[in-house]
Input
Amino acid sequence: MPSPFSISDTHWINFAERCAHTLNRPLDDSELTQFKLYAHHLLTWNEKFNLIGPAPPESILIRHFLDSLYFAPLLPPSAKIADIGSGAGFPGVPLAIVFPQHRMHLIESIQKKAGFLSFIVAELGLHNKVKIFNQRAEQMPSKEINSYHVILSRALSDIAQGATWAFKLLKPDGMYLTIKGPKVDQDLEKYYMNRIHLKYARPQLHTILGPNEHHSILVKLQRI
Output
């Protein structure tokens, strides 16, 4: 059965070093322990429920954990945040581990993934600051409408669709953040063809240089 011990100490050290660079501070022992527990349960559940698909155990450290932390530099000091299409908890859970001051809501419509989120939030002791919504973003309760400082998405393929869902949930001047790959220009062309772009300021693009010179683009849309 997969366990955090399937991931070598070298991989964990490399992960911790990359986190320190991304966060401008080292992970403390408690945070690293939480990430190891997260890895253990994610790998175990993935065997049965296919939460993230087949992959070498160590790949989750960079592909999922570190990739989630790339949102960190653009987050305000303290905020109410929603993660749309959270899946197995990315980016919301890693961000909740390292930023306890935020209120994090994980929105996931697929029952098996929402079940894992409920389990892992309890296992990591995050239940006081993380809440799970097992529903679609457009079906959120009325009290959550226009209540978030930040909306995040990592798995959505369409910027325009994410921006549409985010607009309904964001406070005035709130922001929508999403990570895209090298085809971001094509996605932005589609975004500009949708009237939703009139409700946001001009997109800000932040290039992220990941491992092996892999580039990602963090897209920021500020609601107006």
Notes: The mean pLDDT is 94.
